[in-house]
């Protein structure tokens, strides 16, 4: 079997082994996909050991995505722009390539849910690693306006400057804001890349939403996330959590490792009950 796995901390409840095993089953391929717990100090050694012992590819999840970008031998362009790696793969005799399929995963899931970005006013909440991972992909969909909102304004300013310096598509048009409720127009789309749902706390929402507005939380959970409950109260009818993105980024990673067609995600989606509240 092809040896794959995911590095994270915590990693015990990762759904990735289930997702990748289902892809393999559907395509009649043999893989071994392990959960690999690491610490920041031990992570570089753990990665080296995994590839030395026959590993072919690995996913990387919190809190190691930035560290993985440091230790990969080569980064794809989108991993460079994201400053973070969620997919490692061995090429040739020893080089390890770092890629990032998170943005592509989000875009695929938004497409399949009919959540459109092109020509619409978009609000991205957060300016940490998660926001940085998805912002370039959202910009590539040509929103009419992008508000980048972060409690610590300076972090949003730094992120905008970074993307402008990297000539990321549409980066010049980002408007940086410290509080979403100061935005003075009805918003079509809002993506939560803060940790608000992790801590079960409210974060400020845009003051008003367009009739057909949608909202997306990068976090996912068994029940509605805190952010999606907030959106429901605000009258936003189209809502989804990040389970669809997780499955789509996994499909992109699987294709990178195993070649061939991108795995079909519909079966896995129905099996894991993605929620559109
Ligand atoms: P990640 O890698 O998941 O993005 P992070 O880098 O710690 O994690 O970023 C967390 C994000 O959630 C940040 O944008 C953070 O805002 P600050 O930069 O101002 O810290 C945001 N966040 C966390 N708690 C928040 C809160 N109570 N209200 C508003 N934003 C919050």
UniProtKB/TrEMBL annotation:
Binding site for shikimate: 14-16, 61, 86, 102, 220, 249
Domain Shikimate dehydrogenase substrate binding N-terminal: 6-88
GO cellular component: cytosol
Ranges for domain Quinate/shikimate 5-dehydrogenase/glutamyl-tRNA reductase: 116-198
E.C. number: 1.1.1.25
Signal sequence region: none
Catalytic site: 65 (proton acceptor)
InterPro entries associated with the record: Aminoacid_DH-like_N_sf (IPR046346), NAD(P)-bd_dom_sf (IPR036291), SDH_C (IPR041121), Shikimate_DH (IPR011342), Shikimate_DH-bd_N (IPR013708), Shikimate_DH_fam (IPR022893), Shikm_DH/Glu-tRNA_Rdtase (IPR006151)
Pathway of action: Metabolic intermediate biosynthesis; chorismate biosynthesis; chorismate from D-erythrose 4-phosphate and phosphoenolpyruvate: step 4/7
Domain SDH C-terminal as annotated: residue spans: 242-269
Keywords, comma-separated and alphabetical: Amino-acid biosynthesis, Aromatic amino acid biosynthesis, NADP, Oxidoreductase
Pfam families: SDH_C, Shikimate_DH, Shikimate_dh_N
Protein residues bound to NADP(+): 77, 126-130, 150-155, 218, 242
Record field: catalytic activity: shikimate + NADP(+) = 3-dehydroshikimate + NADPH + H(+)
GO BP: any one term: aromatic amino acid family biosynthetic process
Lineage: superkingdom: Bacteria
UniProt GO MF annotations: NADP binding; shikimate 3-dehydrogenase (NADP+) activity
UniProt keyword NADP, yes or no: yes
Role of this protein: Involved in the biosynthesis of the chorismate, which leads to the biosynthesis of aromatic amino acids. Catalyzes the reversible NADPH linked reduction of 3-dehydroshikimate (DHSA) to yield shikimate (SA).
Subunit-structure text: Homodimer.
Name of the protein described by the UniProt record: Shikimate dehydrogenase (NADP(+))
